[in-house]
């Protein structure tokens, strides 16, 4: 039986000191028993000699130093796992909140897990379809990749996250696909939005959701992404599923880490965040990937808001070092009702070239992607020149590129939050937009592909038989 300690020395905010402990380890879970019989959880943050510093999972209210006892459980925080976790919603501690019975676990895993050994990693090279043209066509998500979304306050990243949960899939019907969704520090309204979306669209059947609300304990916010990734590791590496993990909002997670660090009186780093923020984020992000000995994979999309729209803020800055690219959301696109407001030019998927092409998407994918990037960039430059000097300063070709950029934003980027496009719809739409340009301007596409797709797309446009890109839900 675990030893009980009646040696609580001090309680300060969310922290508590326990003296004269024996055999207690870092990250070990503990249970506090109050005089009235109530039990509360805590976790060891630090052990110095015979003194343990623990983090409270609940308020310190009601803890009587003289009469309360603490016992340590001999293990870290664990999550019970079984195939029944699919379709379920849990809180930030892994407890069911969907009014369904408790999970009967087949196994339990420590939520801290381990990053995948680099020698055991398989290189990501298989396409994942999100149904969003600005991602699938231009910043392709690859199975096993870490691709964050950089957003800002007031931008519709929650709607984008819900859309990805609803629409994401692998193209091989023989493979099982699941989504693990972890939300940290969100409001009750946001949590209700996600839950309603998942249930109304049926996405909940293949989803495991972990919800930590803004009014819940800070330590739960730190545990939530680890719970989500533990569930993902079980689904991917025990059940051989292809798993997409979406974590929102990593800025709130980092703020929780800063709060705990300040309570421990640690020396702060940039903007008050602890000096180990990079290491801590890496322990989360590096749990994604593919393993050589497993058919399953974990693909990670962390979403973070940039305070003051500042991409040099420590959280996006460090995230960019660890992950393989970023999807940037743009406020100016939202202001003109172009949603999802993905700014494709500064966005980047470093692994996209490995997940596209013949036998993965289609043989024209890379060429059309490069041509669309080049044409949109020139069109934006011409549009800005027109805004400054007037339309008369533009050449006839510049005016064509301005028309292209406007149509590209309206139809390709601005598909709305309810339209689900296959990669083939996206590629066809790309050709229809490129048909605005003269053939001589398609200098990044081989003539063989132009002959195969360009004239057919031009004919569709002339006959007004475009099948995608006219979505009215913006």
TrEMBL record:
<dbReference type="InterPro" id="IPR027417">
    <property type="entry name" value="P-loop_NTPase"/>
</dbReference>
<keyword id="KW-0375">Hydrogen ion transport</keyword>
<protein>
    <recommendedName>
        <fullName>V-type ATP synthase beta chain</fullName>
    </recommendedName>
</protein>
<dbReference type="Pfam" id="PF22919">
    <property type="entry name" value="ATP-synt_VA_C"/>
</dbReference>
<dbReference type="GO" id="GO:0005524">
    <property type="term" value="F:ATP binding"/>
</dbReference>
<keyword id="KW-0066">ATP synthesis</keyword>
<dbReference type="InterPro" id="IPR004100">
    <property type="entry name" value="ATPase_F1/V1/A1_a/bsu_N"/>
</dbReference>
<dbReference type="GO" id="GO:0046933">
    <property type="term" value="F:proton-transporting ATP synthase activity, rotational mechanism"/>
</dbReference>
<comment type="similarity">
    <text>Belongs to the ATPase alpha/beta chains family.</text>
</comment>
<dbReference type="InterPro" id="IPR022879">
    <property type="entry name" value="V-ATPase_su_B/beta"/>
</dbReference>
<keyword id="KW-0406">Ion transport</keyword>
<comment type="function">
    <text>Produces ATP from ADP in the presence of a proton gradient across the membrane. The V-type beta chain is a regulatory subunit.</text>
</comment>
<dbReference type="GO" id="GO:0042777">
    <property type="term" value="P:proton motive force-driven plasma membrane ATP synthesis"/>
</dbReference>
<keyword id="KW-0813">Transport</keyword>
<dbReference type="GO" id="GO:0016787">
    <property type="term" value="F:hydrolase activity"/>
</dbReference>
<feature type="domain" description="ATPase F1/V1/A1 complex alpha/beta subunit N-terminal">
    <location>
        <begin position="8"/>
        <end position="74"/>
    </location>
</feature>
<keyword id="KW-0378">Hydrolase</keyword>
<dbReference type="InterPro" id="IPR055190">
    <property type="entry name" value="ATP-synt_VA_C"/>
</dbReference>
<feature type="domain" description="ATP synthase A/B type C-terminal">
    <location>
        <begin position="354"/>
        <end position="454"/>
    </location>
</feature>
<dbReference type="Pfam" id="PF00006">
    <property type="entry name" value="ATP-synt_ab"/>
</dbReference>
<feature type="domain" description="ATPase F1/V1/A1 complex alpha/beta subunit nucleotide-binding">
    <location>
        <begin position="131"/>
        <end position="349"/>
    </location>
</feature>
<dbReference type="Pfam" id="PF02874">
    <property type="entry name" value="ATP-synt_ab_N"/>
</dbReference>
<dbReference type="InterPro" id="IPR020003">
    <property type="entry name" value="ATPase_a/bsu_AS"/>
</dbReference>
<dbReference type="InterPro" id="IPR000194">
    <property type="entry name" value="ATPase_F1/V1/A1_a/bsu_nucl-bd"/>
</dbReference>
